[in-house]
Each structure stands twice: as C-alpha cells, then as structure tokens.
Amino acid sequence: MLQKPDPILFYNENTLFEDELADNGSSEITIKTRVMPSCAFSLMRFFLRVDGILFRIYETRIFIDFTKNYVIREFTHKELSYNAVVEKLGEENMSKVRDPQAVSEVLDVISKKREKISPQ
Questions:
Q1: Rounded to the nearest 5°, which phi and psi values hold at 87?
Q2: The model's pTM
Q3: Can you give the pLDDT at residue 118?
C-alpha cells in the first residue's frame, strides 16, 4: 500500500489551537489530512514546549484503506527534557525547537498503542 504511487486528491493542514504560554513556551494542536483514491491518512498532534523544562507530544494517526472494513488508529506519547532536546538538535539549531516535526524526531517514545477498529 505505501509503496505504490497514489495521487493525492485532497490535502489540508489546520491549526486548531495555539498559545504562547505567556512567553514561556508554546502549545498547539494541528491536524493534517491526506486523501488518495485508495486510502486516507489523518494526523492530529498536540505539541507542548515549556522553555527550560520539557517537550511533550501526543499524536493520533488514523489510516483508512477504502478496500477494508476497518480503520487503524495509532496513539503515541513522546516526551523529553528541554535540555536533552537542545543537546540532540545541537546548539547551532536552536530554531528547530519551534518545529514540532524536528522535535518529534528526537523525543523518547513513552507509550504507543495501535488498534484496529471495526464496525460492530
């Protein structure tokens, strides 16, 4: 499924919530959706940065194969201290601490759950 080229029929990215935490960091909730002829993906991400303290991400991914009678949902919790993230990204890349995707790649996975959801 992931190997074959499938044209993207629809793509959308929306920020549902964003706050600068009184200049002490940031938090945001975003959702990305991509629809192809044979399937659809959706990613909802909560990103939290508390300056000098920690980074935390909660992600829910949903995959729908239109030829199957179920949906796959994956929930991931990632977290790491602020200093550990800065060390992994490198002092020269401090601008990356504002990029949820870059931070997500270096955080430790605290928990991950995948489930198959079928109609009753």
A1: -65, -45
A2: 0.88
A3: 86
